[in-house]
Design brief:
Blueprint: E1 2-9, E2 18-23, H1 31-41, E3 46-50, E4 59-64, E5 69-70, H2 74-86, E6 92-97, E7 100-106, E8 110-115, E9 120-123, H3 127-133, E10 146-149, E11 153-158, H4 162-167, H5 172-181, E12 190-196, E13 199-206, E14 211-214, H6 218-232, E15 236-241, E16 249-255, E17 260-274
Parallel strand pairs: 2-3, 4-6, 11-12, 13-15
Antiparallel strand pairs: 1-2, 1-17, 3-4, 4-5, 6-7, 7-8, 8-17, 9-10, 10-11, 12-13, 13-14, 15-16, 16-17
Helix pairs in contact: 3-5
Amino acid sequence: MTPYLTLDVFTSAPFAGNPLAVIPDATALPEAALQRIATEFNYSETTFVFPPEDPENTAKVRIFTPTMEVPFAGHPLIGTAVALARAGHGPEMVLELGVGPIRATATPQEARFTTEVALQVIARPDPALTARALSLPETALAAPPVMASVGLPFTLTELTSRAALTACAPDTAAFKDGAAAHPSSLDFAQFAYWRDGATIHARMFAPLDNIPEDPATGSACAALGAWLTSQHGAQSLTIHQGDDMGRPSRIGVETTETAVTISGAAVPMMEGRLNI
C-alpha cells in the first residue's frame, strides 16, 4: 500500500487552484505503474518522489500528465515542495527534474522556485490556426502568437480584451492541425492571456493531453515571463488563471534577464493509500 496525498496548488483556499497528486515515496512502485497511476488520478499532473541521485539534493521528482511524462511543470513543483516542507524538509531545497536541478524554497503553506533554463522560441504559429484553436475571430488576437518554452512549450497568445479571454473554447480539430504542423509543441497547448498592467488574466487549453482546461499552469507562466522579459525587460506579475472555470488561481512571477521565479500557495486536501 503506497501513501499519497493531494493538494490544491496556487491557492490558499480549498476547492480552488489546480489539484495535484503527490506520491511521497515512489521507490517501491514498478515503472509501468507510474503512468497508469497518473491516468487514474486524471489531474493535470501527478508527481512521484524518489531519493535524489545527488545526495546533496533534496529529492528526485518525476512528473506525469494523464498521458505522458514531462520534464518540468510549475504547479507540480510548487505542490511537491509544499508537501516536502510539511514532511519536515526545507525550507531550502534542490529538486531534481527532467530539466535538471531546480532550487526551491518552501514552507507548509507556500513555495517558490527559480528556473534559469534559457527561453527557447520554437515557432511562430499561424494566427488564423491559433484563433481557430481558441474558437475566436483572428481580430481578437492582440499580437501574433509565439510558441516558447523554458522546459515545456506553449503557444502564447495575447488577446485584445478580457471578454475575448472569457469567450475562448478549445476546438479539438484545430489542435490536431496545430500538433501536426508543430510536432514538438506538446500537442499545441495554448496559453491565452490579457494583460492589465502588472496583472495578467490567462487560460490554458491542452485537450489532446486530456486537459480540456488547466486551472493553473506554472510552466506556461514561466515561459510567458521569460518571453515578456525578452521583449520588455524584467517583469513583476500576478497571473490570474482558473477564474473562468470556477477554480481561481494566483501565480506570482518575478523575472530577471536570466531567471524566472514562480511562487504560490498550496493547501492539502486528501490523503490515502494506493492499493499497489
